[in-house]
User: Fold this.
Amino acid sequence: MVLLALTHGKAQESITYDSFSQDTVPEWLKWPRNIQGRIDMLVQEPLLDVSQLGLFVWDLTADSAIYRYNDRHLMRPASTMKLVTAITALDRLGGNYRYKTSLYYQGDIANRTLRGNIYVVGGMDPMLDDSDLHAFTLALQQLGIDTICGSIVADKSLKDTLYWGEGWCWDDDNPFLSPLTVGRDIHFAERLIETMAERGMGTDSIATSEGSLPDDVTIVCVREHTLDQVLYKMMKDSDNFYAESVLYQTAASTGQRPATATDAFTVTRRLINAIGLNGNDYRLADGSGLSLYNYVSPELLVRLLRYSWRHQEIYMHLLPSLPIAGQDGTLKRRMRTSASEGNVRAKTGTVTGVSALAGYCTAANGHELCFAIINQGIMHSNDARNFQNHICDALCQP
Assistant:
């Protein structure tokens, strides 16, 4: 028997579904009771005899719970952890936040030669690519610099020197967490020198080093990408490097240098406290969900999704980034030709033994819902994904 809290008129009532006989069910209860009945059938599947399930469905329109099943159990979220990272960042930084990678020079320019150093301050922008290297090179040439006698100094002071997340498996395809990369290549300075040479600049006297930006420098060029751009790939493609970059933007916003993942989690726990839960009840280890040390609950994911929906300045940036069932991202091949297609917008999550799905959908009566489903102890991910698809259909179908 599942407890249901429903908003009916102005009063919120806590009832059980067997409080009414079939003949006496009031009209306002028929729709959620239908959903509850469908899910009751699904949670009898043999899959759950040998694995664990955490499930929570919330009616955003009525601001009430629809279905709860082990919703407070601590479980590994896999890539649904990216929802925690994204919502925290949007709440802390704002949707108009921009990543910045800045180029400076120090020294004297004479006879088209810079005798001094080039400094590049990394902002852990995962979107930096060859076009940005070309823009940096062009900006130097527009200053009248054809040759550099000095060093390209990489300022990586934004974050600590830990290049992997806590609890990452050594044999996974893990991203390398550097504040200054180009196309995920950590050899930024070398790639910049190659680009300079391709554009005809004299590079034979250039060395490379790491260091901090001094005071007596002149700005040359700043390359920027928006948080929306980063969130789109982070969520649609479940890109782990992009997620970690978002985590460290939150960390850096605290003013700590170098920033650490712990700095970001301090911000996250404050948000968790603000939504009425206890931030210390959860284990936060990374921003992407790669770590096997993350432990959150379906309740936490749903409460954060609810918080986002209630704060349009967050929701308007989060929703477009989420995969759409049957249409794009990691949901492109799921829930096709069902009531969920084009309706469910949700973040997927998969690591060994875990499959998860959390996001939003619209029910047949027009109510907007959010949900979190975590299947743990799974031998075959397809079994869990099919189960999640059926839960979404139960929420969306008439």
